[in-house]
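Anyone opening a protein record will find just a pair of labelled lines. A complete record is shown below as an example:
=====
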Amino acid sequence: MAWSTRELAEIAGTTVNTVRHYHRLGILGEPERAANGYKQYETSHLVRLLHIRHLRELGVPTSRIERHDSETENSELLPEIDANLAASIARLLRARAEIQVILAGASTARESDGPAANVAVADVAGEEPNS
């Protein structure tokens, strides 16, 4: 089966401009053209486009997506993205714990506030207080 650029974009849930952008970046290969000059995308193009979109949804910048589908892309890049997400989650959990303390009427807890503040934040965050 072969699709036009518009059809490929619709199937993948994106836009024609996005498909063209990925061509310009070299991360989505150009398909063969029919006698009338129209691009004829194959299943391999759809699979690659869906893979690129999935990586983008995971937070991978287009500049880090390999020009060709490769094992290196997943084995080196995804652990880095995962570590960044874990750090973001930890930072957000700390912020939420501090907000809960504020909402509960306590002052913001900082290391310089002493052990009592750490206990309040730890209690809200569901963690053990620092010794």
Observations:
- The chain has a mean pLDDT of 82.
- Strands lie at 32-33, 39-40.
